[in-house]
Each structure stands twice: as structure tokens, then as C-alpha cells.
Amino acid sequence: xxxxxxxxxxxxxxxxxxxxxxxxxxxxxxxxxxxxxxxxxxxxxxxxxxxxxxxxxxxxxxxxxxxxxxxxxxxxxxxxxxxxxxxxxxxxxxxxxxxxxxxxxxxxxxxxxxxxxxxxxxxxxxxxxxxxxxxxxxxxxx
Length: 142
Description:
There is one protein chain. The chain is mostly beta strands. The chain has one domain (2-120): CATH 3.30.1330.80. 8% of the residues lie in helices and 63% in strands. The protein has one helix at 21-31, and strands spanning 2-7, 10-15, 36-54, 59-65, 69-81, 84-94, 100-119, 127-130, 135-138. The strands form two sheets. Strands 1, 2, 3, 4, 5, 6 and 7 form a seven-stranded antiparallel sheet that branches. A two-stranded antiparallel sheet has the order 8-9. A hairpin with a 2-residue loop joins strand 5 and strand 6. It is flat. The termini are far apart. The mean pLDDT is 95.
């Protein structure tokens, strides 16, 4: 992973072949003291597991793609949960056929690159557990 601050509140982060993006982005945020950020990205994965949230079971149903895909859109945020930065991102990926799949980014393996623009807002964001959904959701009042 390579990262460069390009403005007071903006970073360019480039993930390398084989990087796991969820772990890498959370580690980047931890290393740079980032408690809140928005991010966008494009690139490709050699495999990816997306998720569809099943609200009745309160868990993600996995959508696994064990093939090369283009990351057409990656959009998400970083916020603190229990004092640690946590990524919440959604991805739309393109298959060789031109078909697309999308969902919550659970895990992936980058190949050959994932290029991100990370923007920090002026204040930290914090998550709190929502008992109704079972998810950690941003609470702007914290």
C-alpha cells in the first residue's frame, strides 16, 4: 500500500496486488490517526466477497465471486467503533460479460491495483450499536 496526502484533508491511497482492502484501509486509518473519512475508489479484484444484509437474520448473506472483476465503484466511510477505525463500504464490480454485482464489501484480494481517494471531514464520526438492526451505525450526535 502506498499513501500520499494531496491536500490538508485528502489522501490518495493505492493498494497493491494481493492486499485485502478492508484490513488495509482500516490499518491506513489507524496509522494516520484518521477517525472519520469518506472514500471512493476504482481498480480490480482477483476475487471478492460482497454481502447483502438479511434484515430478518441480522447478518450478511455472502455473494462470492472467485474471478477477476473490475471495481466499477467503491464508496464508503470510516468511523470509530469501540475506539478503532472501521470501514463501511459498498462496491459495484463488473464481470467479463459486462454484468455487474454489488453489495457490502466484506473481503477481497486486489489485483492489480485499487486506487482510493480518502477525504477527512472536519470532525470524527462515531458508530453506536443499533439493537433493532444489529449493526454499528454512524451516530452524528456522539
